[in-house]
Fold this protein.
Amino acid sequence: MPRLKIVLPALAMVGSLAAWPVYAHGFGQRTELPVPLGYFLVGAGLAVALSFVLISTLVDISGQPSYWRHNLIGHRWSRGVLTSPLTLLPVKLVSVFLLGLVIATGFGGDPSPLLNFSPVFVWVIWWVGMSITVALLGNFWTLLNPWKIIFGWAEGIHRLVRPGRNLSLARNYPARWGIWPALALFLIYAWVQDAYPKADVPFHIATLVSSYSVLTLGGMFVFGRDQWLRKGEIFSLVFGLFSRFSVTEVRVNDGAACQECAVECRGSDGNCVDCYPCFQRANDREINLRPPDGGPGRNEPVTDDL
């Protein structure tokens, strides 16, 4: 694995020498900037610099684990509304339906990117919209992830048909892999989004979504749902990172639930935060409002995975 940390950047540098002109950001006509290019570049640079200033001044990096929190499921009625299977089922059905709709319209819908459902939904509504939502409000992707939902339903059916048997093979995920497979897949995804000239073609979108669906469901089948979502599923990792800046978190106070966790979920301060498998099992759990710096300032051990 240390060799990969040297080889991969070297290959990227060599590959950049053979680059060709590309069209950024998928589809649509090229538009002129409403301001002079120099103003745009200066403004972009200042925005990046200001973000570092804000983070350095507002985020607590002292390692103190405590910050203001308000438990949204502290009352019985709110707990029933936010965690009841009857409440969550319609949301899950819509998520799976939208995945199927993207694939169906991509393969069988209008071939024009401007008249088809899949390009706008995938590149604008889902990718941009979900990124902003999880960064501001919380990691809704863990609830809406259609592959997680489908595999969970399959596990439930399998337990009914074959009680006591797991659907997953539950193979040990190689520790040396870390999240490198997910990183490689994300780089491919980023290239498709920003550089692939046919990223807006509905048929190609449906093919990519179908291929990723097979890969993700296969990874959960081989390594287990929670393990693959934690290490190999691109968007669970990316949206989980974005949600660090949001105003909500899930927290588990039930130590017994963490003992069954397939991953090391507790930070160096002993808290189990934003571990959704533990949250599903735990009896003593919280969905908290918190200040936005609560996530970035969390005291956790650093690994070479990320």
Remarks:
- Residues 67-294 form one domain.
